[in-house]
Amino acid sequence: MTKEAAGRAERNWDEISPRYEKVDINQAFRLTEEYLRKFLETPEVSRAFEILETRLDGRYAEFTFLGFEKQERSGMKLPYHNIEHAEVVMMNSIFLAVLDTLARQEPINQKELFLLAVKAAHHDIGATVVYARNEDAGAEIAGETLAQFGHSKDDIDNVKAGILSTRPDFQGGFRQAITESTSTYDEYLCDADVSNFGGSDFFEKSYAILVESKTIAGKPIPMDGSTEMVDNNNFVLQMITDHRWNTDVAFYLYEKQKQENIRLLRQQLSL
Known about the structure:
The chain is mainly alpha-helical and 271 residues long. The chain has a single domain, classed as Orthogonal Bundle (Hypothetical protein af1432), CATH 1.10.3210.10. It is 63% helix and 1% strand. The chain is built from twelve helices and two strands. The chain has helices spanning 3-8, 13-21, 25-40, 43-59, 83-104, 110-122, 135-148, 153-164, 184-193, 202-216, 227-242, 248-268; strands at residues 168-169, 175-176. Strands 1-2 form a two-stranded antiparallel ribbon. Strand 1 and strand 2 (175-176) form a beta hairpin. Helix 3 packs across helix 5, helix 5 crosses helix 9 (184-193) and helix 6 packs parallel to helix 9 (184-193). The longest helix is centred in the middle third of the chain and has 22 residues, at 83-104. The protein is globular and about 50 Å long. The two termini are 34 Å apart.
């Protein structure tokens, strides 16, 4: 079975959950907070957030996103792919890696965890250059930053591959660009990137990304229950239904709420 097929295979909750229920979840949270503080202070990660903070708003200054006009901070012009999204993906990526490693009773790979943080910080940074299919631009920006700070070609290639692995593919159903060469750490990144599928903020975030993408495409989204909104919800339902977690730890953390979100979305559509 290929890695892609394995990642999309149906998982068994009763087989997976005992592995993670033995872990001290508070320890996982503490370690995640420690690593997050440490990595945010590194020049590679702080440079990424500086780019998001200073370039993102200007890139989309011409657009007005209905319902998202008020910005609390710089880097928040886009309703979804903004600096806050990068922070959340970075935090969740680290948490998935830490919890999974603790469950396996293995030592944490400090270097891979740091590179994971770099990938997360840069995974949508290409949006400062181009909106659609921004992963290529993001990989190049990350590569340039890492080269400036003296990283090896292996590290640069590792980070670029991780960023490219987050590219969504809608051919034959939603999936991310997971391949045979994708590392487990990249799978944590991909799962963290769509962790809102299994989050209590799923509907809020889904609306944000629809407003964002439709506005940039020149098609405003109505606020009422019109046919266009129903079509949007059908698209979201198809996407979340097609989706499968790449890692057991993401399945453990997010699958139950994801299924509840699917149920509520079907209810909205009277399915």
